[in-house]
Write a structure and sequence with these properties.
This protein is mostly helical. 64% of the residues lie in helices and 2% in strands. It has one domain (2-223). The chain is built from 8 helices and 2 strands. The protein has a two-stranded parallel ribbon with strand order 1-2. The protein binds zinc ion (2 copies). Residues 105, 109, 119, 123, 205 line the site of one zinc ion.
Length: 233
């Protein structure tokens, strides 16, 4: 299955990138960039987090492989598409995945059982390192990864197939975005791009444990009144 092979290659490459960036941050504690987190890492922390991250990476890869296999090769297209169609479908993927994540994330905070048994694992990553987007209970990791599958289904419903180029770029973007929001480096200028879910946006979620549930954009938190407002932002 060509589509599956390409996506899995991107998954592996993204994971190695996440691992490499996290390792560099842990090693270079004298890094000149200003992080949002003041607590320092130890190498033991890194090893501890890697174990769960690797386990989740394997589980997510299995879930994605099975899902794409069930959907079937015929629904994936290698045909070239226009820039505008690509942009629209890419935006659809981001939006669908973000809505899915917002609601499951919020549910895991509202429901005390789900928070205690599942989501609290991710909040134990203090301070987070980039690859901590994979430091979560396996059920949460797979639940979040399912957003990609829902996105694929929506693409098929909209255009009759899922463009492999949209999926490939989206899979890579998704990892880069998650690395960025858990890096502690405020890369996006919030003053001008406040509608994008930034590192600071997610930092406040890890700080207060309530609010800022979305990942890619900030509009869902604004609409549903879950945005964390802080004077120092
Ligand atoms: Zn997080
Ligand atoms: Zn949370």
């Amino acid at each position: 299955m060509n589509a599956l092979f390409l996506l899995m290659s991107i998954f592996v490459f993204s994971f190695l990138l996440a691992f490499g960036v996290s390792y560099l941050i842990v090693k270079k504690e004298d890094i000149k960039l200003k992080r949002l987190y003041t607590k320092r890492f130890t190498f033991a922390m890194f090893v501890y987090r890697c174990r769960l991250a690797i386990k989740n990476f394997i589980l997510i890869s299995i879930l994605t492989t099975i899902s794409l296999y069930v959907i079937g090769d015929s629904f994936f297209s290698f045909a070239s598409i226009s820039f505008w169609k690509f942009s629209f479908l890419f935006f659809v993927m981001v939006a669908v995945d973000d809505v899915w994540f917002y609601f499951i994330h919020r549910l895991m905070h509202i429901n005390r059982f789900l928070y205690r048994k599942i989501h609290s694992v991710h909040h134990r990553a203090v301070p987070p390192i980039p690859m901590d987007y994979l430091f979560a209970h396996p059920i949460e990791a797979m639940g979040a990864a399912f957003g990609l599958i829902i996105g694929v289904i929506v693409l098929i419903l909209i255009s009759g197939n899922a463009s492999i180029y949209v999926l490939a770029v989206y899979s890579f973007y998704r990892t880069i975005h998650e690395l960025a929001v858990h890096s502690g480096f405020q890369i996006i200028p919030e003053k001008y791009l406040g509608w994008i879910g930034s590192s600071h946006h997610h930092f406040k979620h890890h700080k207060y444990h309530k609010g800022n549930y979305a990942s890619a954009f900030t509009y869902l938190d604004k609409i549903f009144g879950t945005e964390i407002k802080e004077k120092s932002s």
